[in-house]
């Protein structure tokens, strides 16, 4: 909560090595409900740190950070998807962030695959005669929009 309000707090956390600790934590959590809450808070803290350009650069330069964030976006089905998406958009808003993703063609390919998968599911829903739950449909459309925006940021840089 403090990272959402104070730049000084964010700088102190980064100086104490919080980015590496949070990235390790993200990699070690399971898919249990309590761990998913921890994951969401870890991603939110990274997102808050990334609001400041100099701290965003530290995050991007941290070993494996971009890959970890992309993989969380790909595997997360809950609210963490949107937090990871917002964080990845911030990363892709900088030249160094885009370069970090472009260094790994596999990550870019997986992001393209995510967009294609969401589009395919949307087409399937339209063809299916039974109307899907409105919340599920809106959620899927929002996921598609987020993923497409990230790919657009990467390819237009």
Automatic annotation (TrEMBL):
One of its GO terms (cellular component) is cytoplasm. It comes from the Eukaryota. It is found in: Cytoplasm. ARM repeats lie at residues 17-64. Its main location: cytoplasm. The keyword Kinase does not apply. One of its GO terms (biological process) is establishment of meiotic spindle localization. GO terms for molecular function: calmodulin binding. The keyword Repeat applies. Keywords: Calmodulin-binding, Cytoplasm, Repeat. Pfam families: Arm (PF00514). InterPro entries: ARM-like, ARM-type_fold, Armadillo, ASPM. This is Uncharacterized protein. It comes from Sphenostylis stenocarpa.
